[in-house]
Design a protein that fits this description.
CATH topology of the largest domain: Rossmann fold
Order of helices and strands: HHHHEEHEHEHEEHEHEE
Radius of gyration: 19 Å
Distance between the termini: 24 Å
Helix content: 25-40%
CATH class of the largest domain: Alpha Beta
Structural class: alpha/beta
Number of helices: 9
Shape: globular
Strand order of the largest sheet: 5-4-3-6-7-9-8
CATH architecture of the largest domain: 3-Layer(aba) Sandwich
Strand content: 15-25%
CATH superfamily of the largest domain: Vaccinia Virus protein VP39
Length: 228
Amino acid sequence: MLFQPKKYSLRALFGSISSIGQWHALRTYALSQYDWISSRRTRTSTAFGAPIPWWSYSATSVIDQIVSTAGSVLEIGSGNSTLWWLNRGNSVLAIETSEQWADSIRESAGVDPNLELIIHPLDSVDKLQLLPAERRFDVLHIDHTGDRSDAIRRFLPHLSEHGVLIVDNTDREEYRSSLVDLVDQGYSRLDFFGIGPINAYCWQTTLFFKQETLKTLGRPQSFASVAY
């Protein structure tokens, strides 16, 4: 769902000035509850000093409640989501295409036995042969720079029978066909469309799961990083 801002005009400018009161209320209450303004200012996916995933806030809130802190996570693309998973107590295998970015994640994570970080060149991301076929994870998170549709097909076999798949930016047209394929394979989808860190617009993060997975998800966890 793409939104095109109105072109600049004197009428639009006057409308913006006359809505300062509404903007002040939004800024003071809703955005402050997310610590969005700090995130926007620093250009970091954080909330109240703690790293959080660069997903829609609603997706982070729900996933934090239903995914067990004991679960294993496979991330295709690392970031503050990696740090967020680690802070929850999850074990994470992150496959990252940028060596510089991987160094930044290692520095932020420190010495953490729950983190396994693999670097692989961006131009070979479609040729990854890094995991034993039998290795399974409770969560598969796809959010890297590259062909995410291909990554879904390639790494889905590593998702456990009752695992959950998280895909960000699913409102983008280029991912539509692969998402339809998932539904055809028996996955249910739960979309979270809304604002998130840094960006001044809404986007969509989607959770995919098999119906039987609902019986195995843990009870709601206490919020690990921030109360929404």
